Structure formats: structure tokens, C-alpha cells
Amino acid sequence: MIFSIFYAAHLRRTPEWIKNLIRKVDYWAISKANAVILVDDARYEQIKGSAPKKIITIYNAPEDLPNIKLLNQKDPSVSRKFHVAYIGLLQVERGLFEILEVFKVHPQWTLDMAGFGGDEKEISARCASMPNVNFLGRIPYESALQLSISADALFATYDPSIPNHRYSSPNKVFEAMMLGKPIIVCKDTNMDIMIQEADCGIVIPYGNVLALEKALQTLAENPTVRKKLGDNGRIIYETKYSWEIMKKRLLKLYSSIA
Fold first, then answer.
1. By the 8 A CB rule, do 82 and 103 touch?
2. Average pLDDT over every residue of 121-133
3. Which listed site, 19, 94, 154, 191, has its alpha carbon 20 to 30 Å from 133?
4. What beta strand segments (E) does 109-256 contain?
5. C-alpha 62: how far from chain center
6. 157 near 94, Cβ under 8 Å?
7. Residue 103 forms part of a structural domain
8. Sheet-wide strand order for 35-38
9. Which is nearest to 41 in space by CA: 162, 156, 168?
10. What is the predicted pLDDT for the residue at 214?
11. Which H/E stretch holds residue 15?
């Protein structure tokens, strides 16, 4: 048996006493598993107090796309609006109201927003009143990737006051690296450490609309900066986070417990 999720940290509005009970079940499952898979080294701290028999980190990296450099090529002769994409859970704790606030005062930029979640109704209603925002709702993964490929920048602005966000290493960050796209993330979410080390995006304080606007302006007005950050992300994906590297690590784990 392999344990690969710490469920208690995923709960948004559950009373603390119930979370504590679930945490005890998590610890019990960890102690019984042959191995524990973490999606980031930072999560060692999250499961502190448990007793795993074996532990390994497998980053949540996507499989590489063929001809990604060709897919990312833009025709320099075509005048384009600065274009941003978000595909993921539609929750207010992911800075989505803040991004919409910025795009409201920058009608020259465009935003694709897709996904589903607990705050979808309110978010989609706000998008409907903004002509420069395209709300798509739930879409297939292939379509989501295409949106990200067409974007100039991505963002994953999670609220660090939520425990699970402080240890986050979401698929969207590794997608941005794989696609060679700069990404905006928030301080104290673990993503900030990865992004700063690789110099492949911009880190801002969560909920700071002015900082978010400044980050977007930097990317919108400086194509060379976007390219540099995107290229840095691609390099770190290839050398540290790629699915090929993760696959070999995972197969080695399976062999060791077979």
C-alpha cells in the first residue's frame, strides 16, 4: 500500500476538532503504508509526527509535449493583446477576485478563465460583465493545455493562510515551467521558493491588488522579460521536475516494495 495524500489539510470550512480526528486517521494510514509519496519536499513538515516506513517526493509534473518550442512560437508581425490564462479550481482563496479587479481597469489585456469549484457562480457572474474576460467553465485537459500555450503568462495566487496552500506545488506551476511560460505566485505558499530559485516568474503578497497589477504590467510591457522567465522555467523543468525524471523515481520505488 502507498499513501499519497494528507486529507486533513484539504478541508476548507471543517471544524478543527473534526480535522484533528481526520489527521489521526491520516497518521494511522501513513504508519501502515509500505511507502508515502509526497508531492514536494516541503510537505515533510506537514506530516511531522507520523511514522512512515519509506518516503519519497514525486513532483506533480506533467508529461512533456512534443515540439513545445514550435507550439510557443508567435508571429512577431501580428499585433497581439497581452493575454493571461487561468485554469483550475474556482475558489476566492486563489486570488480570482483580485485578478478580475486588475483586468477591469486594463481592458487592453485579455484573460481566459476556466475550471469549476465552490465559488464558480459568483466568479462567472463577475466575468460575464467584463468583455476582456472569457469564462469557459469546465473544459477537457487538452483544451486547458491549449489555453495555457496561447497565453503570455499564467498565475497561481493561493492564500497562504490556508494550511494546504503553504505546502503547495500545484500542477499549474510545473505546466508553466514545461510550457516555458512565466507565472505569478504568492509569498509563503512554497511555490514562491521554487519560482525564485528558478527565476521563472514573479512573486507577490497574496491579496495585494497593486502588486498583482505591477507584476502583470511588467510582463505585459516587457516581452524580453517574459521570454527570459519562460526559458528559465523550461530549463528547470528539464533538469529537475520533468515527468521523465519523476517516472524513473516512481518506478524505482515500486521495484523496492514489490
1. no
2. 96
3. 191
4. 110-116, 133-137, 153-156, 183-186, 201-204
5. 12
6. yes
7. yes
8. 2-3, 35-38, 55-57
9. 168
10. 98
11. none
Cell of 18: 473534526
Q: Residue 3 in contact with residue 22, Cβ under 8 Å?
A: no
- pLDDT tens column, 60-108: 899 998 776 555 655 443 447 899 999 999 999 999 999 999 999 999 9
Cα–Cα distance measured from residue 150 to residue 79, given in angstroms and rounded to the nearest whole number = 14
Place of cell 508531492: 39
Q: Are 178 and 68 spatial neighbours (Cβ–Cβ below 8 Å)?
A: yes
Q: Could you list the residue range(s) of the whole structural domain that residue 46 is in?
A: 2-57
Asked whether residue 26 falls in the same domain as residue 102, the answer is: no
pLDDT at 43: 78
Same domain, 112 and 227: yes
Determine, yes or no, domain membership for 252.
Answer: no
Query: What pLDDT score was predicted for residue 167?
Result: 67
Average pLDDT of the chain, as a whole number: 87
- The model carries a pTM of 0.85
Query: Are 77 and 147 within one domain?
Result: yes
Residues 32 and 75 occupy one common structural domain: no
Domain identity same for 43 and 127: no
Tell me the three cell numbers of residue 56. 519519497
Question: Is residue 250 one of the residues assigned to a domain?
Answer: no
